[in-house]
Amino acid sequence: MRVWGFGGVGEVGGNKFYIEARGEGLFIDFGISYAYRRRYFGFFLRPKKFSLLATLIASGSIPLIRNLYDRELFDPTGLTSEVLHKAPELNVQGIVVSHPHTDHIGHVSLLRKDIPVYLGVGSYEIARTRELTKPAKTIEDKIFVDGDRLVHLFRTGSKVRIGSFEVVPIHVDHSVPGSYGLIVHSPEGSVAYSGDLRLHGPKSVFTEEFAETIASQGVDVVMLEGTRISEEDQTTEADVEKSLINKIVERRGLVAVLTGLLDYDRFRSIVSASEAAGRTALVSPRMAMMLNTFRNLGVMPEDLLPGKGKVEVLVERKGSGLLDRQDYHGWEREYLERLLDKGLPLLTDLDVAAYQNKYTVVLNSPDDVLDLLLMRPVEDSLFIYSTSEPHNEEQEIDRERIDNWLSILGMKSAQVHASGHACREELEHIIRMARPKRVIPIHTEAPGLFQPVLSRAAPGSTLINLHPKTPTAI
Ligand SMILES: [Zn+2]
Ligand SMILES: [Zn+2]
C-alpha cells in the first residue's frame, strides 16, 4: 500500500490523501488548503473565475494530476490542458469524505463529476444546506447543489465497497455532526484515518468507539490528526455551557455570541445558557435552515427549532431597510414568506434594541458585527467570541476589526470556547486505545511532537512522516 499526502501534511487542513494498492486508489478527503490560500492569495489577489483551476494548480494548492478535474473548469486559453498534459494519471476509484468542514470537502467542487463521492448522510445534508444558503457562491462553494455529482451515502458501521477497497466509517466526536473516522481495507493491508476528532465533546464515546474498532480489527497503521498536539487545554463543551451561563445571567444589556454555523454542540450550549438567563436565542434565517437540517438528521430535539419557545429567527434588514419582500431573494425570500404565512412575527434589530435583556443574538460571521450598531447596545452589553482564538493573520485582522467596533459600541468582550480537536493528552489516550504499530501525523503543523506521545502511549511503535506530494509505502 502507498499513501500520498497531497494536502494535510505539515499543515492544519487541506487534507487530500491518496491511498493506492494494486494499481487502484482512493482519495480520502479533498479539502481546501487555507495555508496555500494565505500564501498565494489575498482579498483582492484572487484567481480569475475562468482560470481558477489553472491558477490553483500553478500555485500548488491542488495536485498536478491529469485525469482528476472537471473539464468545464479548464480555461478557454488552454493553460490548464498545457499544464496537465504531461502530468501523471491516477486510477481513482472514488473520494471518501470524513466530514463537511471545507478544509476536508471544499475542493471536491473542482473534481470530475463522474468520480463517485462517498460520505455520511449527515455530512451530505449539512454541506448541501451550507451551500444552498451561502450568499455570493463561488465555483469552490458549489459541490452538490447542481445535483449532477455521483454521490453514495453511508452511516456509521457501513461496509462501503469501492473497487477492491472496503471502507468502514465509524462516527467520531468533532465540532460538526456527521463526522467520521475511516478504516480502509485494501488487498495490500489496512489503514485507519482519523478525520478530525476530539474526546472532550458530548459524543466522546463515538471517538472511543473508533479507537476500539482500530484495536479490535488489528489495524496497524493510523493516520492521526494532531491539530492540538502542542496544547494541554482540556476545556470541555460542558465547561463552555457553565461559563456562558455565568456570563449571561444577570446581564442587563445586549448579549451577542459569535459561533460557527455548523457547530451544533455550541448552539445547544448557547441556547441552554440563554434559557438559564431567561433569554430567547435569536438566529439568522441561514442558521434556522441549518437547524432544520440538524432536526431532520435526528441530531437535534424539536424544541430547539425556531418558534418552539427557546429560539426565534432574527431577520436582517436589507436593501430598503423596511422588510420589503423585494429585498430578499431565492431560498431566503421563500423562508421568510413561509414564516409570514404561518403568522409568525418577523423580529429585527429594532426588537432587540427595544428589549436588550430578552434575547441572545447568535452571529455566524465576523461581518455580522455591524448589525450590532443598529441594535444600539446599552450599558452592560457583552460580545462573546465562541470560536477558536485567531491563528492566522486574516483572523487576527477580523478580530481587531470586531474589537474596534465593540469599543465604539461600548461593549465588553469575552472568549468562551472548547476546541473541535483533541489536545495532547486526548491524542495519547486515543493511541493507547487503538494500539497501532505505526502512526502517521496529519492535519498538524508540529508532526515532530508526536514522537514523545507515541513513545509513552504505544512503546515500540514507529512514527511515519509523509513527504508532501510523493508516495510513501506503508
Ligand atoms: Zn480539519
Ligand atoms: Zn473539521
Helices and strands, with pairings:
Elements: E1 2-7, E2 16-21, E3 24-28, H1 34-40, H2 52-59, H3 79-84, E4 92-96, H4 102-105, E5 117-120, H5 121-133, E6 151-154, E7 160-162, E8 165-171, E9 180-186, E10 189-193, H6 204-216, E11 221-225, H7 237-248, E12 255-258, H8 264-276, E13 280-283, H9 285-297, E14 311-313, H10 330-341, H11 349-354, E15 359-363, H12 369-374, E16 382-385, H13 393-409, E17 412-415, H14 424-434, E18 438-442, H15 450-457, E19 462-463, E20 472-473
Parallel strand pairs: 3-4, 4-5, 5-6, 10-11, 11-18, 12-15, 12-16, 13-14, 13-15, 16-17, 18-19
Antiparallel strand pairs: 1-2, 1-20, 2-3, 7-8, 8-9, 9-10
Bound molecules: zinc ion (2 copies).
Could you explain the architecture of this structure?
This protein is of the alpha/beta class and 474 residues long. The protein folds into two domains: 2-231 and 421-473, Metallo-beta-lactamase, Chain A; 237-415, Metallo-hydrolase/oxidoreductase (Rossmann fold), CATH 3.40.50.10710. The chain is 31% helix and 19% strand. The chain is built from 15 helices and 20 strands. The protein has helices at 34-40, 52-59, 79-84, 102-105, 121-133, 204-216, 237-248, 264-276, 285-297, 330-341, 349-354, 369-374, 393-409, 424-434, 450-457, and strands spanning 2-7, 16-21, 24-28, 92-96, 117-120, 151-154, 160-162, 165-171, 180-186, 189-193, 221-225, 255-258, 280-283, 311-313, 359-363, 382-385, 412-415, 438-442, 462-463, 472-473. Strands 6-5-4-3-2-1-20 form a seven-stranded mixed β-sheet. It has a seven-stranded mixed β-sheet with strand order 7-8-9-10-11-18-19. The mean pLDDT is 96.
